[in-house]
Structure formats: structure tokens, C-alpha cells
Amino acid sequence: MKTLSFAAALLLAGDVSAHYIFQQLTAGGTKNPVFKYIRQNSNYNSPVTDLTSNDLRCNVGASGASTETVAVRAGDSLTFTLDTPVYHQGPVSVYMSRAPGAASDYDGSGGWFKIKDWGPTFSAGGATWDLSGSYTVALPTCIPDGEYLVRIQSLGIHNPWPAGTPQFYISCAQVKVSGGSGSASPPTVSIPGAFKATDPGYTANIYNNFNSYTVPGPSVWSCGSGDGGSSNPNPGTPAAPTTTLVTSTRAATSTAAPSPTSPSSCSTAKWGQCGGVGFSGCTSCASGSTCSKINDYYSQCT
Predict the structure, then answer these.
(1) pLDDT in tens, 176-222
(2) CA quadruple 177, 86, 125, 272: dihedral positive or negative?
(3) Taking every pair of C-alpha atoms in the chain, what is the biggest distance, in angstroms?
(4) Cβ(93)–Cβ(215) under 8 Å?
(5) Segment 288-298, tens digit of pLDDT
(6) For the chain, where are the alpha helices, taking DSSP H only?
(7) pTM reported for the whole predicted model
(8) How many C-beta atoms lie closer than 10 Å to residue 247's C-beta?
(9) CA distance readout (Å), 113 to 49, 53, 87, 229
């Protein structure tokens, strides 16, 4: 009984842990049931942190076998809604990958192109992130008809590398696109492979002299930009009107965060990670918060 109780408690902790997951898709103006058109992952709302893992494509255990594919038209808007709003500071990006056949059979091993970034805006010595409960993106009008995976990613950089580990929160929707011009051939990247531990947007320390930022991964591609794509290293486009906007600003000179060079003498800001299996960052919390164990793999300053 003791073992069963512990397992049940751990399962509950995973369900209510202080993370988030993109779980609901709105297409054609219809907000669909949770995981109807979005692949359901098996790690609850925990992040992926291994840059070499295939789980970076659509998340842990997220296969298409039990996921339906929604019919959309090129140019339509899709809205991804989370179980709880994003609150880890960092960029949100949307990628697409065309399946060679049915999206439900596709493992995402082909090429991916990026169609949207939400990055920080800088003013008055601080950065503001678009931390929302939902994110809306328009599908390109010039892509070929076919079935696609549409991948949304929130990269939490609240635990600066190398003392901490950035966290990827990922979901993939399955869509069947019609009405496209069929002429576009966007440049693609492989996932894993598109993100490296040396990328400035991965190693950025949001608590120390943070006054510019380049979102990791390829440039944003759009129909008007040709095969070379277009990029804005500091995109500040606000969320679509359907999103619930919650912003967070950190002063560039803030010292309440972990120091990547001396974790033993640093402290973690509230809501940051402070422990867990494999964690090597700061284990003490800033004044006013305490380190609370969520599960064996994640403790958080609350």
C-alpha cells in the first residue's frame, strides 16, 4: 500500500506540476476538445531538455496514431491553447513539416520550417515577453496542399545555461491543408539538430545585462520572403487578439537569478527550478520563496 500511495502521489504531482502544455487547437473558428487534433504526450506537462532527442519534434510519447487530422485552408489561422498560461520567460515559435503521406503516420523526421516567433521587446532597461494562455498563427498561403505537422514550442530560459538547463515545451497539431498555391519551397532544418547548446538564444542570461536576443532555430519564413526566408532577431509582434496577454519584465541588472559560473553562491528567482534528478543549478531560492519538490525530476521556487 505504501508503494502504491507514493506512486499515486507522484502521478498527481506530475499532473499539477508548475509547468504547462499546448493541448487544444482552434481551427476554422472552432475550439476543439483537448488533444483531438494535437498529439498527446506521455510526460504530462513536463519539458524536454535533451537537444539530441527525437522528443524535441512533438514531445515525449506523442504519436499520431490516436490523433485526428483537421482540414484547413492555406492562410487560415490556428490557435494553440495551453492548460495554464506560459510563465517561463523565453520565446515561443511555430514550425511546420510536410508529411510524405498521412500526418498521423509521420514521425517528423523530415524538414521543418519556421513560420512565427514571439520574442522579447526591450525598453527602460528591461525585457517584456508575451506570456499568454493561447497563441495564434496564420498558415502561409503559398504552401503546397497536403498533410502537415504544425509544431509550437515555448523555450523557457529562466534557468540560464550552464548552471541551469533551458526547457522546451512542445506540441504538434495534425492538419490537412488545401487551397495553397503549391509553389513555395521553404528552406528546412532537422529536429533534433536545429538547436545547439552554443546558440546565443539558448545560452542567454535574462538576469544579467540582457538587452538583445536572437530566437534559436532558423529564420522565420514567409511567402513574400522567397526561399531564403526572413528574420527579425528581436521580434516584438503582439499576440493575436484571441490570446490572453500576460507579460513579465525583468530589469537587465537584476541579480536574483542563478549565476552560471558559481551555482553554489547563487539563488534562483521565484518560479525557477531549484532541484531534481540531474539538475546542477542553484538549489537555494531568492528571498520570499522556498524550494518545493514537485516530483523526483523537478523542484521549483514557490
Answers:
(1) 999 988 778 999 999 999 999 999 999 999 999 999 999 999 999 99
(2) negative
(3) 62
(4) yes
(5) 778 877 655 55
(6) 2-16, 55-58, 200-203
(7) 0.73
(8) 15
(9) 21, 18, 26, 9
Residue 41 is which amino acid?
N
Q: Three cell numbers at 283?
A: 538549489
Q: Quick check: 106 and 67 in contact, CB under 8 A?
A: no
Task: In whole angstroms, give the CA distance from residue 138 to residue 26.
Answer: 12
Q: Look-up: residue for cell 503559398?
A: 142
Q: What is the 3-state secondary structure (H, E, C) of 80-95?
A: EEECCCCCCCCCEEEE
Instruction: Determine the Cα angle at 126 with ends 124 and 132, to 5°.
Output: 120
Instruction: Measure Cα distances from 102 to 22, 65, 69, 182, 267 in Å.
Output: 22, 10, 9, 18, 48
The answer to whether 279 and 163 have CB atoms below 8 angstroms apart is no
Residue 229 to residue 254: CA distance in whole angstroms = 35
Amino acid at 191: I
- Could you tell me which residues are beta bridge partners of residue 299? 275, 293
Question: How far apart, in whole angstroms, are the C-alpha atoms of residue 202 and residue 242?
Answer: 29
pLDDT tens-digit profile of 128-139? 999 999 999 999
